[in-house]
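Agenda item 2: uridine-diphosphate-N-acetylglucosamine complex prediction
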Amino acid sequence: MDQLGVVILAAGLGKRMRSTKAKVLHHLAGKPLISHVIQTTQHLHPDRLVIVVGHQAAEVERACRNEGGLFAVQQEQHGTGDAVRTAQGHFRDFRGDILIVCGDTPLLTAATLARFVQDHRTRHVTLSLLTTRLDDPGQYGRVLRTCDGRILKIVEARDATSEELEVQEINSGIYCVHADFLFTALEQLQPLNAQGEYYLTDIVAQAVAAGLPTQTMLTTDPNEVGGINSREDLAIMEKTRQAQLRSHWMAAGVTLQDPETVYIDEEVTIGSDTVIGPNTQLKGKTVIGTHCRIDGSAYIENCRIGNDVHLLFSVALFNSEFGDKTAVGPFAHVREGTQLAARAEIGNFVEVKKSVIGEHTKAKHLAYIGDAEIGRDANIGAGTITCNYDGFRKHRTKIGDRVQVGSDTTLVAPVTIHDDVYIATATTVRKDVPAGALVFNTREEKVREGWTATKREKMKNAK
Ligand code: UD1
Ligand code: CA
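Presented output:
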């Protein structure tokens, strides 16, 4: 059987983005545009997948290193036709069809591409073109046809006459072409257009002129083939993708109380019966379990959240793990490398960093816990601070099971508090404390009776 190849064009800078970053590295739903396209085409299980890189080739290669695929480098960007030509080296011993897609069309679906390729093959055509119809066809290439409807050629908006610009059927930039014809046709391209570039689009007219069988497929969902050229395109597409992701998760059993204010990255997963309040951002590879409650105003990046977790109003959580039935917030900040065991509770104005918090341990008010390891059933009082940084290095604090840390305690790391210790309020702990001990600092408490009245009298007379 014929082989299937894929070529993804991603060498352009994307001038219209006005960015120092290559266009395909800009993110949609938290993932580079190029990764969206690669992952979609990988669903077709191509025999060969080649990504044409150029602008910031090294960065683009790094961004899609783990997606599979070979790279071809287009040193100078002389147009889409020239770009495909640079991929030719990877197709020397190849027999079959090549699906060409642009790296800047991230909403393409594998289902549409599969149908497109299937159709191309069952009809034994040399060239297939995916098109769509737009009310406002803008800068897209126009599909020109004969009076009896047969495809003739594609003309770029820049090169089109005002009459041609009226055409609403546009080139999606997605082609399926027999490899032999493709590479021969590319040799014959001429840069005779407004941009002085080698246009891939010109192979359509070549196939027609040679009398080879060509066909077009019209997609009914124009969003799918939309290309991103500007920041505005990117913003519009982000809106479209967010709407799709919200619908997906609602269909999977997640309640979004105000869907339009919930932002979900591509790789996030959410368990059923979880209820998410307004203004919630779920970023990166965040995984949320079932039956969770997220009250709202939450920023959650790369976190693993168990089942039955309650995130109270306003939390910022990064690269951390939250066991089943934990509760965090309101107004809590959990930073990288933190692990909360089941039923642990982090309350208001508590910051936790790189710490392990044992089962059912609580730190409910105003605390900083950094580089600490705390056992189970412990209680961290209000105003507790782990002094983990001496100005040179970070040090660890260890707190055992069932330890009661009184309010306003400072723990000067490195320090170990063994199991069942009681730390009296307002204690500065500098030395390790053995299991079961009470630790306190002696501070004399002095009382001056009638002091306030005397002071007030003095102040009044001074006026
Ligand atoms: C292209 C098509 C246009 C179509 C539109 C669909 C041509 C000449 N025009 O226009 O008919 O309607 O896509 O989105 O093909 N690239 C390279 N090397 C280059 C030039 C471009 O790799 O030398 C890559 C870009 O990185 C991008 C893709 O090819 O991913 C398309 O290039 P772009 O400049 O965005 O083409 P459009 O003007 O959108
Ligand atoms: Ca484009």
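Discussion summary: The pocket of calcium ion (ligand 2) is lined by residues 102, 104, 227, 229 (CB under 6 Å).
Owner for follow-up: CH.
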